[in-house]
Write a structure and sequence with these properties.
By secondary structure, the protein is mainly β. It is built from one helix and 14 strands, in the order αββββββββββββββ. A six-stranded antiparallel β-sheet has the order 3-4-1-6-13-10, with no helix packed on it. It has a six-stranded antiparallel β-sheet with strand order 2-5-14-7-12-11, with no helix packed on it.
C-alpha cells in the first residue's frame, strides 16, 4: 500500500467514525416540578433524563433518534408518577457548529400522532387555528412561523398537513394524566425535512 493510499484510507476511516446522522428529538415533561416520569421507553431511540434539572432530572426526558429521508414510526411510553399536567414538545436536536458554536437548524417533519391513556388534540395537524396559522391544540415558541406549518399532501405522511420544527422553532402540547401511576403511550411519525 502506498503512502498516499494509506493516508486516504485513514482519512475515510476517521470520517466514517466521526460522521453521524442528524437526530429528531421529542421532550416529555411533567409541568409540576415535583412530579416524575417513570419507566420512559422508546424502542431504538436514545432516552435520557434532563440532567441539567438538578433537583429532579426525572421531571423531563429527551428522546432522540437518527433521521432519514423516510417516514419512521416511534412509540414513546412512560408511567406518570402522579396525576396532573404533562407536556410533549416536538423539536430537532441541539446541533452546534464546532467553530462558531452557532446553533445549526436540523429540520424535522412530524405527523400522525396518536396517544393511549391521555387525550391528544389534533395529532395529525389537520385542524387549523386560523388566527395563528398553526395547528389547533399546539403552541409554538417565539421562533415558530406559519411557514413551518406544511400544507402539502405530497410532503405530509397522511392528510395534507404536517409540521416542520427545529431546536429553536418547536411545537408543544399539554395534556392531563387523570390518575397516579397511569401508563401513557404516544406514537408519532417523523422524518428529515426535504
Amino acid at each position: 500500500m502506498t503512502k498516499k493510499t494509506w493516508v486516504t484510507a485513514l482519512t475515510l476511516a476517521v470520517f466514517a467514525v466521526t460522521a453521524r446522522a442528524d437526530k429528531m428529538r421529542v421532550d416529555i415533561s411533567a409541568i409540576n416540578t415535583e412530579h416524575k416520569l417513570l419507566d420512559v421507553k422508546a424502542e431504538g431511540a436514545h432516552v435520557s433524563a434532563a440532567t441539567w434539572i438538578q433537583d429532579n432530572p426525572e421531571q423531563h426526558y429527551l428522546i432522540e433518534k437518527n433521521l432519514t429521508g423516510e417516514w419512521q414510526e416511534l412509540t414513546i411510553s412512560f408511567t406518570a408518577e402522579k396525576s396532573g399536567k404533562y407536556a410533549i414538545r416536538l423539536i430537532g436536536e441541539l446541533k452546534k457548529d464546532k467553530t462558531t458554536k452557532e446553533v445549526i437548524p436540523v429540520d424535522v417533519l412530524y405527523d400522525g400522532m396518536t396517544a393511549t391513556g391521555v387525550p391528544l388534540i389534533n395529532g395529525g395537524f389537520e385542524d387549523v387555528d386560523e388566527s395563528r396559522s398553526a395547528p389547533k391544540g399546539w403552541w409554538g415558541n417565539s421562533d415558530w412561523t406559519a411557514e413551518r406549518y406544511i400544507t402539502d399532501e405530497a410532503v405530509a405522511r397522511e392528510g395534507s398537513r404536517c409540521i416542520k420544527v427545529w431546536h429553536n422553532a418547536h411545537m408543544a402540547q399539554q395534556f392531563y394524566v387523570p390518575k397516579d401511576g397511569k401508563n401513557v403511550s404516544i406514537t408519532l411519525w417523523f422524518r428529515a425535512a426535504p
